[in-house]
Amino acid sequence: ISQILAVTSDGIIKDANSTSTQLREFFSHIKAEQIGKYVDECLNSKSFEQSGFVLQDLVNQAGSRLGFDVEYGLYRGMQGKIGFDGIWRAKDGYAFVVAVKSNDLYNFSLDTHANYRKKLIQEGKISEAASSILLVVGNDRTGALEAQTRGSRHAWDIRIISAASLVKLMK
Fold this sequence. Notes:
7 helices; alpha/beta; five-stranded mixed sheet; 5 strands; 171 residues
């Protein structure tokens, strides 16, 4: 995947640039098996620069293939913008605010993602009653994250899936 990234536009992924547009277009035309291979490469090979951004787009592509209407989020935080990785909307109106984490080796603030959801609700982009946060974690060891979630006040609003399970579901 790093070689494919190198031949797209300037090879540097930024929000709404031609590299991200070309990469997303490429992902929309390849087989599900290849999506899975690229996810594995992002997670298991020696990390290449921008692998997290590629993983984010691959996860959103999986959401699209599962039938969700996908709104891509930001790669990098921006002042005054809501920092979600994606919003997946189902045909029935339910929405997932997606956050992609390459691993669960460190704790991160669930409050941050809850605040993204809250801001999206305030802006009218999603409904409080018909939305939740979906954490997509790069490895299958989600126990620590599950425990952190269960112990938080956000337990009812957060769902967790490993990237491998998401790919399996997509296939």
